[in-house]
Amino acid sequence: AMIALRQLLDHAAEHGYGVPAFNVNNMEQIHAIMQAAAACDAPVILQASAGARKYAGEPFLRRMVQAAVEQYPQLPVCLHQDHGASPAVCAQALRSGFTSVMMDGSLLADQKTPASYDYNVDVTRRTVDMAHAVGVSVEGELGCLGSLESGQAGEEDGVGASGTLSHEQLLTDPAQARAFVEATGVDALAIAIGTSHGAYKFSRPPTGETLAMQRIADIHAALPNTHLVMHGSSSVPQQWLAVIREFGGQIRETYGVPVEEIQRGIRLGVRKINIDTDIRLAMTGAMRQLMAQKPEEFDPRAFFKAATAAAQQLCRERFEAFGCAAQA
Ligand code: G3H
Ligand code: 13P
Ligand code: NA
Ligand code: ZN
């Protein structure tokens, strides 16, 4: 059944686990996530970006998620709008039956430049007023996602800031986070601790300098009743990078957020962990491999099936590592 993010994450907080929020754009990704969740009896967050709605089309996205809920009646499913750029985008999500929306007011809607604190409070509070009136949860964001190595938002990222961000902008301030939650009433808060979107997060494995995990403890202490969200949380598995390269793909040396760091984040208070890139890498790797190994194959179902299996395995590993198994 459908469930709001607040209810789903309240349970996670009570039982000390974290929930992966996987981005979805098509049937195969939804299949993979639901199969993995069913196999280990895990609660589900499916999140769709504005780009996902554009790719699939709003009616398809809505009805594919409805189909997932119908096929897996035993699993709680939250449908979340990822990175809503304005209250208007969040209003569209409400009309589409989403049970959670992210109002990302950390950036100005059109310019992709860092927004003022007052702008962020204003758009987020308006979204909370609208969403809470119909029982839908809201995630806000304070601080800009981006690399502490370079000050850049992340390369192939469609939702991040353009230009260089200061060290200050790249780390969420705990006292400001507390004021922000008091002013807006958000259920969940995305925090900036050095992660960024996409495959190119770190040029070498992250350290305490480039991934500021200790911030989570400080923010959690200031905000015990707000669910903390880690964006840019793909681990960028080296095995999948190797497969993609072996079968003709071009991906430079890069590192993601290690699963053990996410597990530490969950112990420090993180409840929602956003993952898109890892599913992209697994599906692309599996398809490249099969195309190379079976050049006579031309039924696209063979490729989609391999991609779904690879994504399912990855999702299952994340559900289990984050403590979701048997929590549905
Ligand atoms: O936060 C960004 C997600 O990876 C969504 O990416 O805008 O390409 O759908 P997208
Ligand atoms: P990744 O690019 O690390 O998968 O992050 C996805 C994300 O944060 C979506 O909001
Ligand atoms: Na989100
Ligand atoms: Zn994100």
Structure description:
The protein is α/β, with parallel strands linked by helices. It has a single domain (about 5-320), classed as TIM Barrel (Alpha-Beta Barrel). Helices cover about 45% and strands about 15% of the residues. The chain has helices spanning about 5-15, 25-40, 50-55, 60-70, 85-95, 115-130, 175-185, 215-220, 240-245, 260-270, 275-295, 300-320, and strands at about 20-25, 45-50, 75-85, 100-105, 135-140, 190, 225-230, 270-275. Strand 3, helix 5 (about 85-95) and strand 4 form a beta-alpha-beta unit. The protein is globular. The mean pLDDT is about 95. Glyceraldehyde-3-phosphate (G3H) binds near residues 49 and 197.
Residue windows where pLDDT falls under 50 for at least 5 positions: none
> What strand line-up does the widest sheet have?
1-2-3-4-5-6-7-8
Rg over alpha carbons: 19 Å
Oligomer: single chain
Backbone shape:
globular
Q: How many helical stretches?
A: 12
**DSSP strand content:** 5-15%
CATH class reads: Alpha Beta
Catalytic activity: beta-D-fructose 1,6-bisphosphate = D-glyceraldehyde 3-phosphate + dihydroxyacetone phosphate
Protein name: Fructose-1,6-bisphosphate aldolase
GO molecular function: fructose-bisphosphate aldolase activity
InterPro entries: Aldolase_TIM, Class_II_FBP_aldolase, FBA_II, Fruct_bisP_Calv
Summarize, please.
The protein is of the alpha/beta class and 328 residues long.
